[in-house]
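Q: Hi! First time doing this. I have a protein sequence and I read that you can turn it into a structure. Is that right? Here it is:
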Amino acid sequence: MSKANEYHAWFESLSNPSERYELDQIIYSDREGGLLQVAHDMSALGETSGAEWRQIFQDRGRRNQWPYGSGVWGKKEWVLPGIEDENIVSMYEGHTNLFWAERYGRELGIDDLWLKLCGNSHTGSFKDLGMTVLVSQVKQMISDGANIPAVACASTGDTSAALSAYAAAAGIPAVVFLPRGKISMAQLIQPVANGAIVFALDTDFDGCMEIVKQVSEEDGVYLANSMNSLRIEGQKTVAIEILQQFDWETPDWLVIPGGNLGNVSALAKGLDMMLDLGLIDRKPRICVGQAEAANPLYLAYQNDFEVFEPIAARSTVASAIQIGNPVSYAKAVDALRRYDGVVEQASEGEILEACAAADRTGLFNCPHTGVALVALAKLRSRGLVKKSDRVVVLSTAHGLKFTDFKLDYHQMKLEHWTSENPNPPIELPAKYSDVRDAMVREIGVRFGGS
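A: Yes, that's right. Below is the predicted 3D structure, encoded as structure tokens:
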């Protein structure tokens, strides 16, 4: 069942809803320089009941009818209803698993802890969810005659990987700007391999962002960063997917790492639509975790968001959220206020040890997920999160993209931190007696065996 052509979506000023633009207009901010959002004809969507929408989404999930098998495009009416199916660029993103972190939850004192493994995606991060929407819209615009020479982004790694892959699949040139020496090699090789034009600049993410904004304004290159609200439309589907996986029972908490802050506003938007259209009937609370080295949202939260001051983000193992001037700050604050939100921070040592502890229970986390786990542990220790609460932590990227910090941790090569639980390989000669003695000793020390 599809009635996508009966629905309509448009750009709308966040501060002035009467200021509207069509989605095929190349525009990134309103007349006052504020953020835009994609708005939907909710009255038309509301003609279908919440129960009917739940069934539609369920029927489409993981099927091969193009393009509805995608976790994003299975919600096409809620995302980009006007786009033609042949212009959709999809790698069947979404449908990532919920991992019941039973053992790690016990260590934190939480009975019902889950991790949404968004990194189990084509390019290894949640950015695929937004990029399929943006690149599809660009392909539609080019098909309709728009002169768009390339798509471009500033990135701390994951955005550039997603943009490069989807642009390559669409046959559209991609240009990415990265802070030189500040992303992992696994992240760097992705846009290189996908044929993007890659610039490694002597600056941080915020400096790269200034360059890409100039390029888009002066040279007509289409901006693909999260200040482009098309990205949010794809990313909001992770909230819908989580609820779908829980048979539409709302969890008590959603915990997410925050850098440029597009993801928290995306989560809230997905929740908003489900509430407004009757798919769910209560709100979860939202927590955003930030690295202490890049914590402008946390600092603003300490003063009830009355003052926001960009900071110079310092180096952090959570490199993808090393952002001192987040583009989506205003949207994030709005989301946190509406969802009784809180903000926490994590020091470098806390991030490292949280990742190591979670990994020992079967996970394999990126450092940004570690930030969220630290935030959750602090909420639990303060009693904000109860033992019986159902909590979902958004794991934003695959751990294999960030192996350097794990290797340094376990090989005791960290400059400013002494690993508390390193597990380096035990190097021995190939002699049975030596191996057996070491094995028995290690089993006894680690697991209490004889």
